[in-house]
Amino acid sequence: MKKYLLLFAVIALLFNSCKPKEAVTQSKTDDGIITFKFIQLNDVYEIAPLSGGLYGGMARVAHIVDSIKLQQPNSFLVLAGDFLSPSLIGTMRHEGERIMGKQMIDVMNAMQFDLVTVGNHEFDLKENEFQQRLNESNFQWIASNAKHALEQDTVPFSIRRNGRTESIQETYSLLISDEDGTEAILGFFGVTLDSNPQPYVAYEDYISATQRVLPQLKENTDIIIGLTHLSLSQDKKLANTFSEISLIMGGHEHHSMLLDAGNAKIAKADANAKTIYIHTLTYDKNQKRLVIDSKLVPVDNKVPSQHLVDEIVQDWNVILENEIKKVVDDPYKQIYVAKVPLDGTDSASRGIQTNLGAIIAESMAASYEYEVDGALVNGGSIRVDDVLENEVTAVDIFRVLPFGGSVLKVKLEGSLLNEVLNYGKSARGTGAYLQRFNFSQNENGDWLIGGKEIDIQKNYTIAFSDFLLRGLDIPFLTPENERVLEVYSPEESEKAADIRKAVILFLSQLK
């Protein structure tokens, strides 16, 4: 019997010594260190590549995300506001409704976004449109200072899915773990600048809102991260005010930046996914030490497209192209090369005379073979909120002027023209600010046309965007005003019939 027991012990020893090392590595010990990644986008208005396919494109971003997640499962895709509006396709109609960001939700659902916050342009949408986009989304939203203003109360915005209603939270906590069992709790808050007031939106001061939500995050999470849509100065103030914040992934500026403020890194990628930020964070729980490595990654025509997302983008592009072809034959034909960036940002278009605004206004005059004294267009009609660089296509002009409309030739009294110009100047910061051709001011602030002071006793012929004659931006500028003497509306076959066609033809001749 003893011989059998001895033999069994020897066999067992040999068996154990021959086991693969893999069995030993399965019982890793918690080293207290965990690494994770964020893939950050912000201010993405277009789902397809821009500038003739040179940069951007959500299908390309999806490919990058997939590649990162293969290497690091703890990778999270976030967007720091401004994605539902403005966009060219968003202004169009499909199945009887305005698209208004539906295409972006469709794409973002397929990309499996993890977390977003609202930007000021989300509230370009009507209340019911914004609610529809919320309901269609399959990802997490946070909004710490932007709430739903009802008649009797202010409440969080809500998402209605599958018969259930869930409120958008002010904060979001995410528990992550790695292979050896190290865990960390990430805490997020999201604040938005109040630059787009709407009756259905109530904004709390972003500093006050952050001060209110941070104590709970500080108590229950390891790392605090801001997903913000603020101006850079506001992001800096946020970081300098609250030392608990480690990283601010922001938006709004449209150009990339990475800087330190307070104890935080502030990062913003380029608009329209020209670039994305990849943040690699390594946290030592024992030392309470966080290291952040941020890399700006270009999204250009060297990056492959992810097949599923690309199919969705192409489906929406068919809808877009069919609409554009009603005005121009080849939407993607190069019409101009912008050696100097053309400024179509909201802040500039509504506050100063821009080079893009000057081109649009001169195009209006050119559509009437310059048989006008000047041209005026409201800055609010420029909706791209971006700059045009390098190759410019017809699609880009549609992005700039998505609402189209005709160019009217209007004869009016000089006194009224003076009042219109003064009103536009006083409306700086709003859509009623005027972009001009052949107008200037002297040192006394008097308006000049063609270098000569406007004579209030004289009549002038001006090319106006048709929107301006509706009295919506400038209340007294309507055909019913007795000082509006004649209004000519172009025939459909004329260049002036569509302001976008007028600009495309004008730029084509400048090449």
Could you give a short description of this structure?
This protein is α/β, with parallel strands linked by helices and 511 residues long. The chain has 13 helices and 29 strands. The strands form 8 sheets. A 6-stranded mixed beta sheet has the order 6-5-2-1-18-19, covered by helices on one side. The protein has a 6-stranded mixed beta sheet with strand order 11-12-14-15-17-16, covered by helices on one side.
> Roughly how many Å apart are the termini?
101 Å
How is the main sheet built?
6 strands, mixed
The CATH architecture classification of the largest domain is 4-Layer Sandwich
Overall residue-averaged pLDDT value:
93
- CATH fold assignment of the largest domain: Purple Acid Phosphatase, chain A, domain 2
Across the major sheet, the strand order is 6-5-2-1-18-19
Number of strands: 29
CATH superfamily of the largest domain: Metallo-dependent phosphatases
Q: How many structural units, i.e. domains?
A: 2
Domain Calcineurin-like phosphoesterase: 37-255
Family: Belongs to the 5'-nucleotidase family.
Pfam families: 5_nucleotid_C, Metallophos
Domain 5'-Nucleotidase C-terminal: 337-473
